[in-house]
Design goal:
This protein is an alpha+beta fold. It has a domain of 43 residues. Helix content is 57%, strand content 20%. The longest helix has 23 residues. The protein is elongated and about 45 Å long. Keywords: Plasmid. InterPro entries: Arc_rbn_hlx_hlx, RHH_5, Ribbon_hlx_hlx. This is CopG-like ribbon-helix-helix domain-containing protein.
Length: 65
């Protein structure tokens, strides 16, 4: 189950804290990846989420055309 709580306000958008469970070795590799991208884990996850949402919106737009 995912724990959720409001953390801060930024650019009129409320930030929400979530808890996820991932294999420890995957997290360590992901942290190394984030370091190479000069992003925090949180920022990198936000970046991937935004990409996925934008890609999905484009797909939906193409399907309705």
């Amino acid at each position: 189950m995912c724990g959720v709580g409001i953390v801060a306000m930024t650019n009129k958008s409320r930030m929400t804290r979530i808890n996820i469970t991932v294999p420890e070795d995957l997290l360590e590799e992901f942290k190394e990846y984030c370091d190479s991208q000069v992003r925090s884990v949180s920022s990198q996850i936000q970046f991937f989420m935004k990409q996925a949402v934008e890609s999905n919106q484009k797909q939906k737009g193409n399907e309705s055309s």
